[in-house]
Amino acid sequence: MNAVRRGGGLLVAGTTSDAGKSVVTAGVCRWLARKGLKVAPFKAQNMSLNSFVTREGAEIGRAQAMQAAAARVEPSAAMNPVLLKPGGDRTSQVVLMGRPVGELSARGYHEDRQRKLLETVAGCLEELRATHDAVICEGAGSPAEINLRRNDIVNMGLARAARLPVVVVGDIDRGGVFASFFGTTALLSPEDQALVCGYLVNKFRGDVTLLQPGLEMLHRLTGRPSLGVLPHRHGLGIDEEDGLRLSLRGTVREASTAPPHGADVLRVAVLPVPLMSNFTDVDALAAEPGVVVRFCDRPEELADADLVVVPGTRGSVKALEWLRARGLADALARRAAEDRPVLGLCGGYQVLGERIEDHVESRAGVVKGLGLLPVRVRFAPRKTLARPAGTALGEPVEGYEIHHGVADVRGGEPFVTDVTGGRPLDGCRVGPVWGTHWHGALESDAFRRAFLRRVASDAGRAFVPAPDTAFARLREEQLDRLGDLIEEHADTGALLRLIEEGPPGGLPFVPPGAP
């Protein structure tokens, strides 16, 4: 059933970063997809180290990949045409249409971006609107960042260019949501305000009737209605942009609430290395009953860990410095000497090797690694972006690769064998120390269970993986819960009208300082 004409659209903005824009966008996508609409997510510009590789080999933000899953469509570069990957020292790698095009300072990017990127962004949005019934766009940060408005291509600049109605999301759990709604609106120009059509309260706890007087007063002050109050729900985060807590918040099952299948639980410690990327790799572990995942940054916190994970990072050399400065490098070496399991993923794999030769990211030259794996890594100017598949521990495994480092493996056993598509074997294992460039491998259920059985054996734990944990199914259930959140608690009739008809005329101007 097509309730809207082709090309309808909506921009989900937020009073702050992490107000819930990604979750609301995904929820609206799933709600519309369940109505039979062909819907696509869109984020003009994303700043994140949490990325994904599409089937055509393009790198986009993982949040947009998950929003595409919510919409039940294949993710593409057009859904996130500009991705900024921070690299420290006030610079970011600019990924345009899924391919890295260079490093820019924040000042250089802001001064140059509108002229070079707005045309690309507008073209992608136009393409999606021409081929979908609705496109649900996600803003970035706050639309009231007035210092950035002149060159904005992701918030009100995009809304103005595409004549998109804007819904502003506010996180009431932080407090001050009414002031945030009012202040966000009041700081915008009259032309931008004309596109702001209403507010969505997110993460509300308690009796919603107690909130009603405030919502009515906000409506009187701004002339804009509340479009819903979304209750606080645990475990509804998707693969958002950054932040340690988001990974575990985004899991679809809390391990502590599910009893283990064996006599023991399995304790996993994740090291939050600088410029950590794709920390969602551990979500599949945390989804397993009886697996407890925590982030640890002190050597003593690793004492009772059955597995230590060194996750991906966009700064392998920085990660090495950090590990050594905190005594964690020595703690990892002791684990290896005691035959206790360690897993390195992408950049974490690189730091476990013998040396890193980097004239691309850090430009540090040759740097000594931790020496736990017989691997030498050379950073190449061309980034590897791939969606490989193969066999590991006798089970099928799939993943995705995002790295400049090229590994020269000089011993041990390969992590992944029988790789399809003519690609070389990946990764390395020496005793209980494992490393691979593949992200997402732990989402392959049979491989994850085989790996956890091996870890439990090496750790001396009577842990048994659950035979029926299907990560893809759990993710689908999570996305359905997001769709339920919108369908049950948002004014879906008003949202459909905005998507279909665009912003209504006659919305009042709210001057700064109005009562």
UniProtKB/TrEMBL annotation:
<comment type="similarity">
    <text>Belongs to the CobB/CobQ family. CobQ subfamily.</text>
</comment>
<feature type="domain" description="CobB/CobQ-like glutamine amidotransferase">
    <location>
        <begin position="267"/>
        <end position="446"/>
    </location>
</feature>
<dbReference type="InterPro" id="IPR033949">
    <property type="entry name" value="CobQ_GATase1"/>
</dbReference>
<dbReference type="InterPro" id="IPR002586">
    <property type="entry name" value="CobQ/CobB/MinD/ParA_Nub-bd_dom"/>
</dbReference>
<feature type="active site">
    <location>
        <position position="439"/>
    </location>
</feature>
<dbReference type="Pfam" id="PF07685">
    <property type="entry name" value="GATase_3"/>
</dbReference>
<feature type="domain" description="CobQ/CobB/MinD/ParA nucleotide binding">
    <location>
        <begin position="11"/>
        <end position="242"/>
    </location>
</feature>
<comment type="pathway">
    <text>Cofactor biosynthesis; adenosylcobalamin biosynthesis.</text>
</comment>
<feature type="active site" description="Nucleophile">
    <location>
        <position position="346"/>
    </location>
</feature>
<comment type="function">
    <text>Catalyzes amidations at positions B, D, E, and G on adenosylcobyrinic A,C-diamide. NH(2) groups are provided by glutamine, and one molecule of ATP is hydrogenolyzed for each amidation.</text>
</comment>
<dbReference type="InterPro" id="IPR004459">
    <property type="entry name" value="CobQ_synth"/>
</dbReference>
<dbReference type="InterPro" id="IPR047045">
    <property type="entry name" value="CobQ_N"/>
</dbReference>
<dbReference type="InterPro" id="IPR027417">
    <property type="entry name" value="P-loop_NTPase"/>
</dbReference>
<dbReference type="InterPro" id="IPR029062">
    <property type="entry name" value="Class_I_gatase-like"/>
</dbReference>
<dbReference type="InterPro" id="IPR011698">
    <property type="entry name" value="GATase_3"/>
</dbReference>
<keyword id="KW-0315">Glutamine amidotransferase</keyword>
<keyword id="KW-0169">Cobalamin biosynthesis</keyword>
<dbReference type="Pfam" id="PF01656">
    <property type="entry name" value="CbiA"/>
</dbReference>
<protein>
    <recommendedName>
        <fullName>Cobyric acid synthase</fullName>
    </recommendedName>
</protein>
